[in-house]
Amino acid sequence: MLAHASHSVSRPSGPLGARADRSSRRWTASLLLLSVPFALSLVGCGHPTQRALQGRWLGDSVENFDDEVSAAAMGWAKGTSFEFAGSTLTVAIPAEEPRTGTYRVEALEERTVRLAVLDPAGETSELVLLLDDEASLRWVLGGGRSIVMRRQ
To answer: What is the pTM of this model?
Structure first.
């Protein structure tokens, strides 16, 4: 069996020792105060694609819809909007209540972004976007169809 020695650590005594101890505590406190905002800024940054999506996007036009439904699709698209705020997405489409959920970037391949959107009921759906530039994106609906959206 090993014997354990009891060691006590004493603080430096005298004016120089007390000053060194206070200086060390101030240095530690300063370091902590400086590191907290930096850490918070890293947490708030999110995925670079998430930052690029931030803001409100309005439906502008449609692509690859049949002629007989093109006018109706265009009207529907013009009433559609996305609003990205942090990790929250609100989708508004005509004749329905806006839907809000949290999203995360699932995949990014060149300009194609796949988002996983979690609704309040716990259901996850996929949203595919094609980023054209800072002011334009396409909501890929499938079958070669898409809605062109412009940043407001």
So the answer is: 0.69
